[in-house]
Structure prediction request, 67 residues.
Amino acid sequence: MKQLMNASVVGERGREILYWSGGFGFLLCEEVEPGYWKIETLAREEARHWCEAKLTASEYRDIFGAA
Prediction:
């Protein structure tokens, strides 16, 4: 699940990976069991809150431009 077609990894913490896909927007993928993933779409604001909570200030700044 590290690679999702036509999507870029925004951030990763533990068993969660946040992707950006131009066609689908933000996708939050969580490994619920080895090899099984739950995927949900997030609005930009929800993705921003996820990043604030999960990423370092530096990582957040690289993605959204301000801390």
About this structure: The CA atoms of residues 47 and 59 lie 13 Å apart.
